[in-house]
Amino acid sequence: MTLMSLVYLRSRIIEALLNCQSFIFHKAPNQRFTMFLVIDIKKIVFLAAFFSGFCLFGQTNDEESIAEVDSVKFNSNRHRTVRKTGDKSYKLGDIYGAAAYYNKFLRNSDSLYSGEDEIMPARIASLYVKYQYKLAEAYRLSRDYVNAELNYFLVFQAKPKKYPEAQFYLAQMELINGKYDKALEHFTQFKEVLSSTKIDKKEVDLYIASCEAAPEIIKEQLKVKIFHPDTSVNKVQVELSPVPLNDSILLYSSLRSDTNIYVNQDDSLSLIPRRKFYTAKKRNDSTWVSQGEYAEGWFNLKDTENGNGCFNRDSSQFYFSRGLRNINGELTFHLYYASREEGDFWSEPIKLNDKINLKGFHSTQPTLGSLGDGEEEISVLYFVSNREEKSLGGWDIWYSEYNSEKNLWDDPKNAGSLINTALDEMSPNYDQNTKTLYFSSQGWPGVGGFDIFKATGELDDWTEPENIGYPINTSVDELYFVLESSGESGYFVSNREGSVSIKNPTCCDDIYYFRENDLISIAIRGNMYEIAATKDNLDTVPTSEFVLTLFVLDDSLNNEEIMIKSLFPNDDGSYFIDLEKGKNYSIRSSADHYFSAKFDFSTKNISSSDTLKKDFFMQRHSQLPILVKDIYYEFDKYNLLDSSKTVIDTTIYQILVDNENIIIEIGSHTDARGTDAYNVVLSQNRAQSVVDYLVNKGVDKKRIRAKGYGEKFPIYPNSNPDGSDNPQGRQMNRRTEFKVIGTIEGVSEIIYTK
After folding, report:
1. 674 and 699: one domain?
2. What is the 3-state secondary structure (H, E, C) of 315-367?
3. pLDDT by residue (tens digit) across 695-741?
4. Do 235 and 255 touch, CB atoms closer than 8 A?
5. Measured at the alpha carbon of residue 230, what is the angle toward residues 497 and 59, in degrees to the nearest 5?
6. DSSP label at 518?
7. What's 18's DSSP letter?
8. pLDDT of residue 11
9. Which residue range is the domain that position 188 belongs to?
10. Among the ranges given (41-50, 297-306, 729-738), the one the predictor scored with the smallest mean pLDDT
């Protein structure tokens, strides 16, 4: 495509799609003003201050388009002045202002070389495409995806070799705009020129995976109803970090303004608007009433930016991120916490240690989990940081365990490659009851920008993340997912069209509320019994002395078990556990000196509310040997037959797997044929063959001992009373038994840290 064709194409597209912007100037009084715009590129709230003498307001498709420009420079006949002022605005972080200047420069160039006979000089042509690319960048960073796509397309058509990354960002904008086939085509083509750019191949592959996955995700639409809270909650600025305090009160963070905010540069910085914590009361699913600031004072400290709050399990501590500016005006977010003193009164917030708040980097978006229960519970802090050492790329989710002995948080560790990708992960929220981490990611296969995912686990041990689905996730950004206590409703944040916007339809994040239409409730219940031996028979007695542990079996990790919770039954021996649909589970009952019991089951094929039933019968370890039937050997040999191995797999081996702390003895017996000494050796070899087989299957040899008893302990007569041979008796005496002879200390304890 020639440069003249590019100019013509650009002018026609702008005329058709953008309706030829017309600008209205409002000259300010003889003062310099600062306009504060929320720049939320990484979901960390930054307030960018821009200085000039005049303000520019424009109309685009009947929607107010706001940018701050110097009208003299904006209308200058010197094109250099216009574009250089745009560069200065861009450098200061004034993305909207930069876009206005770049657009003006390009429009001026269009008018100069719009005639059929006009020839654009090569230097001007090169400059034209350069600023077309800068305009595309400004639109992308301000989340104006439609205009960004248009301008990247024009650059890619004009000079694909000089600006190869234009194709990458074009594909990215097409993905966010829901044009999955086009995005896939351009991402795939871009891989051919990848080596000439700074783009990581991992990033391209991740985006390609989203292009391929998005249509299927959209096809499996969730049965939810989504509500957009009114302007009592959502204003034109960014709202973030919703936290339901109960079923009717919502805590969130916002810079509450219905317009752009201007502050006289000569005024005190205390007049600069700050992001604060607020609460709102829900009257119904779509009507809200503002309740004002939350805990005014400590959390909304003067001259600070505050957001991303979370509570510990009993709501006695509140963690949040606070932004402070250094002497250069640079804003850094770090983590703080406060303790509840009495009622709604809180202590003064304390900044977390330097291990968490690493100098030179952001630490933000905290959420709390725990390991273990009761007195052994260990608190875990998950948070987001852009620290570089051991990062998997961009913004990652990290965790730190609380060291109660030292009374501090340990060195943070990366949550691992089952959560973090080469792209960005944001807004973690950990549900302690289900051990589920909800988070947003650009890297896992999704519908477009940031999608919300969930994974089960803790620390760096997780199931593969699952996209929570459309229409909660859309082609733009969704973050800050949180459920209400019922599990059927909750909140998230999105910049989807329909949000209260300040510049373009997708510029700014709003809080949304959702409710599941047909919630499927699944649970398992049952009773716990102890098998008690009486003089004449066995009896079952209800008991609450055994621990029940629920595991999720992860399909992506070869059915690796991830523990969800442990609990004791009720006093009458009954239990009830809520489950999630679409999972493979294992539930295990255990206690010291008892054989464990396990039940594997799945909720994947359950399509309506249901309660499963499973009773557990627990048997104490016996000092008496337990006979294992059908373990056979060839006559006068000790090699195991294949049929015997099958028996061992389903009896002794399974018992050892289910009871990891027991030590057993394998005892082998013979009949009375042969000498006693010979039979002792033969039985010892037979017992050892069972031990060797189990060790080869992975059982620790310290847990199994072989003992040959020969013919010393018959359980049936080897001969009849008349002295004749008793074949049936001899067959019963040729047997293999096992008995529990001890336990390995510590094995039954749950080890929480790696």
Report:
1. yes
2. CCEEEEEEEEECCCCCEEEEEEEEEEEECCEECCCEECCCCCCCCCCCEEEEE
3. 999 999 888 999 898 888 888 898 888 888 888 888 888 888 888 88
4. yes
5. 45
6. S
7. I
8. 53
9. 3-198
10. 41-50
> In the predicted model, what is the mean pLDDT of residues 192-204?
93
Contact 336, 392 (CB under 8 A): no
| Residue type at position 150 | L
- Regarding whether 357 and 495 lie in a shared domain, the answer is yes
CATH of residue 715: 3.30.1330.60
The predicted pLDDT at position 112 comes to: 64
Question: In 10 A of CB 273, how many CB atoms?
Answer: 15
> How many structural domains is the chain composed of?
4
Question: Do residue 658 and residue 703 come from a single domain?
Answer: yes
239 and 127 in a common domain? no
The 10 Å Cβ neighbour count of residue 105 is: 25
> Which residue type sits at 286?
S
Residues 557 and 435 in one domain: no
Are 262 and 312 a contacting pair, CB within 8 Å?
no
In terms of domains, do 19 and 100 share one? yes
The three-state DSSP-derived secondary structure of 104-151 is HHHHHHHHHCCCCCCCCCHHHHHHHHHHHHHHHHHHHHCCCHHHHHHH
- Rounding to the nearest 10 degrees, give the CA dihedral for residues 295, 296, 300, 303: -160
Predicted confidence (pLDDT) at residue 33 exceeds the cutoff of 50: no
Report the DSSP beta bridge partners of residue 627.
Answer: 737
Indicate the range of 27-36, 248-257, 547-556, 659-668 predicted with least confidence.
27-36
Picking from 443, 432, 381, 452, the residue whose alpha carbon sits closest to that of residue 410 is: 381
Amino acid at 15: E
- Tell me how far apart the alpha carbons of residues 60 and 277 are, in angstroms, rounded to a whole number: 33
The average pLDDT across 109-120 equals 62
